[in-house]
Write a structure and sequence with these properties.
Blueprint: H1 6-38, H2 58-68, H3 74-115, H4 122-134, E1 138-145, H5 155-166, E2 169-174, E3 187-191, E4 196-199, E5 213-216, E6 223-229, E7 238-241, E8 250-255, E9 259-263, E10 271-274, E11 281-287, E12 294-301, E13 304-311, H6 325-335, E14 337-343, H7 357-373, E15 378-382, E16 388-391, E17 394-397, H8 401-414, E18 418-420, H9 422-425, H10 431-436, H11 452-478
Parallel strand pairs: 1-13, 1-14, 14-15, 15-18
Antiparallel strand pairs: 2-12, 3-6, 4-5, 6-11, 7-10, 7-12, 8-9, 8-11, 16-17
Helix pairs in contact: 1-3, 2-3, 3-8, 5-11, 6-7, 7-8
Length: 482
């Protein structure tokens, strides 16, 4: 007869459980120690050249688990597989971030070296050189951008620096109405609430003017707009409006020194109403002006440099493809644009989009279209700035900035356009996080835009970059190199 000793069986069973618990604890400790060794606390702290992520195969990791385990059961198997999955997921994320970053750095160096020997802004610089040496003529720049330049920020400082050196009085073209209240300080701009406004983003009314927008007066109502000198004077105002069958429209013009009524003749794609004798302010009231597209008012006087600020809030730059070529040709014939600047990027980044090849391809078509609109103008691409994001408790550069910069640099290169890397110009990775945390911040709390002092810093950096390239152009001119 075989007799079973239940106490001994229970003791043996408890011993097995005890060793299983110890084994699980040891395996867990090994697991987390390995994670700590492989991955730093902060991804941004990794030294790029030293990164060498070599993910093991599942069976190899299983062997590690086998050799470390005291017991063999389903739980230990699942820990090994979980270890692999987490390692693979985190490793892939690190690899993706730094592969993008390393590609960006490598290609940026190549592009700078190539671009240094390519005179992609020669037409613009030649006009600037003629203006500087003769004191005659006008250099005109169309500056398109998103909310980064809204309110004339950045552009107002660049304009001021150019005009201080080369002459020119006035802010250029200002739209009639906007989708939001104007924040301009250069010219104080107000308008009635009954304008029908359309931009290149929604395109609910056409045609769009050169500022990528248009304003229509409503039927049976009078609409008005006013401009007052701010940091820059309003000089030589000229109303810009389009074609219509309306032959009864009038504009009542009021300034500090006179009041007069003028008939509007909207018989061409682009029409002008020049107003003389204006002081520091002007009000235009439009009577029976329905169905006439109003594009804006131009303020400019004398030889010099004029920069039109065409900000499009929320835009990626892609909608510029919808500007009507024939109408833009009419604007170009009257204003003779020498340079078109494109500063976009903040509205392109999306967390569900990891590559921006599609953006590069579409912006190539945009640049090609703009060259048809303004045949004699060079094109300058200003890249996205540093954009920060929150990673847990830390604020650092959004990893998606790198593939976006890569696409912007590439479409500039492919279209033979000038390129200014604003990300690098402002200080590179981590700059926005530092700017936001300053005692007197240069960045805004949204981690995307600049504060007012920040816009001045950025504007000076862009101007100095252009000025440096222009000086190189002049040296080549003096050497007889074209």
């Amino acid at each position: 007869m075989i007799v079973f000793n239940e106490d001994e069986d229970k003791k043996s069973e408890n011993d097995v459980y005890f060793f299983q618990v110890i084994a699980i604890g040891v395996l867990g400790t090994v697991f987390f120690v390995l994670l700590g060794i492989v991955f730093p606390k902060n991804i941004s702290d990794v030294d790029i050249p030293k990164i060498n992520i070599n993910l093991q195969k599942k069976d190899e990791i299983q062997k590690v688990a086998d050799s470390s385990a005291v017991v063999h059961d389903e739980f230990s198997d699942s820990v090994a597989i979980m270890f692999y999955n987490m390692l693979e997921e985190k490793g892939a994320a690190v690899k993706q971030h730094y592969v993008q970053k390393e590609e960006y750095i490598r290609e940026e160096k190549h592009f700078v070296e190539k671009n240094a020997h390519t005179d992609v802004l020669g037409g613009f610089f030649s006009k600037l050189y003629a203006l500087e040496t003769t004191g005659e003529g006008v250099v005109r720049i169309a500056y398109y951008g998103d909310s980064m330049i809204e309110g004339d920020y950045i552009v107002q400082t660049i304009r001021s620096l150019f005009q201080r050196k080369y002459g020119g009085i006035g802010v250029g073209i200002v739209p009639i109405s906007l989708a939001h209240t104007s924040a301009r300080q250069t010219v104080k701009h107000k308008f009635s609430a009954n304008w029908q406004y359309s931009s290149v983003i929604k395109r609910n009314a056409l045609p769009l003017g050169i500022a990528a927008c248009v304003s229509f007066a409503k039927d049976g109502e009078s609409s008005w707009v006013s401009y007052q000198s701010g940091s820059q004077k309003i000089v030589n105002p000229t109303l810009l409006y389009g074609k219509s069958d309306n032959k009864n429209a009038k504009a009542l013009v009021t300034s500090s020194s006179f009041e007069e009524e003028a008939a509007l003749n909207p018989d061409k794609k682009l029409n002008f109403l020049r107003i003389n004798g204006v002081g520091d302010s002007i009000v235009l009231e439009f009577i029976d002006a329905q169905n006439i597209p109003f594009f804006g008012i131009n303020f400019s006087q004398g030889p010099g440099v004029y920069i039109d600020n065409f900000s499009i809030r929320g835009s990626s730059g892609l909608p510029l493809i919808h500007l009507e070529k024939e109408l833009m040709n009419s604007f170009d014939k009257s204003f003779n644009y020498d340079l078109v600047i494109l500063q976009f990027g903040a509205n392109v980044i999306r967390q569900d989009v990891k590559t921006y090849y599609w953006y590069r391809e579409k912006m190539i078509k945009v640049v090609e279209h703009l060259r048809e609109c303004f045949p004699d103008a060079d094109v300058l691409v200003i890249s996205a700035a540093d954009k920060a994001a929150k990673y847990g408790a830390e604020i650092k550069t959004d990893s998606l900035v790198y593939p976006l910069l890569k696409s912007q640099r590439e479409y500039a290169n492919i279209t033979n356009s000038g390129f200014i890397n604003l990300f690098q110009l402002m200080g590179g990775e981590g700059t926005m996080a530092r700017w936001v945390s300053m005692e007197h911040p240069l960045g805004s709390k949204d981690l995307v835009h600049f504060s007012y002092p920040g816009t001045t810093v950025i504007a000076n950096a862009i101007y100095e970059k252009l000025d440096s390239q222009y000086k190189n152009y002049k040296k080549n001119m003096e050497k007889g190199i074209k």
